[in-house]
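Give me the 3D structure for Globin domain-containing protein.
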Amino acid sequence: MVAFSDKQEALVNGAWEAFKADIPKYSVVFYTSILEKAPAAKNLFSFLANGVDPSNPKLTGHAEKLFGLVRDSAAQLKANGAVVANAALGAVHSQKAVTDAQFLVVKEAFVKTLKEAVGAKWSDELSGAVEVAYDELAAAIKKAY
Ligand code: HEM
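Predicted structure for Globin domain-containing protein (145 residues):
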């Protein structure tokens, strides 16, 4: 069980709203950061074949899904103290043999992107809340392998 407060959930929701304000822009920040740290990810994500193109709906759609799932993870943590990922999500990632190191690269890119989206309202507390929501979701995806 993870203790997750109303305030932490509200902080994660606020960060999600900031990301949603300009999904193409923040999707570029997100994937550029992933590729900086893990250039091989270009071959993993089909929608990166032509580079980080903000007008590619597959690219922005995938970012929106991922960020939205972390927001749902915060809601699950607040309600139940635990996160459950659906089996299909586990299957996609187990087929691609996604590693812990890759989950970390994506986490760092995710936090960096939200930090840029939130701007001056960013805080250690907000960072902590989004990190817990991401980590618990990542653990739930791996459990569903
Ligand atoms: C908590 C972290 C993550 C979440 C919430 C997440 C979420 C998702 C979602 C929603 C999909 C799309 C499934 C569909 O369209 O049916 C997906 C696909 C995928 N994910 Fe993740 N993901 C996470 C972490 C990662 C990591 C760390 C990697 C590897 C670097 C990764 C690699 C992929 C790949 C390769 C696909 C298939 C994309 C394609 O269509 O080419 N994911 N992920």
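The mean pLDDT is 96. Let me know if you want a second pass.
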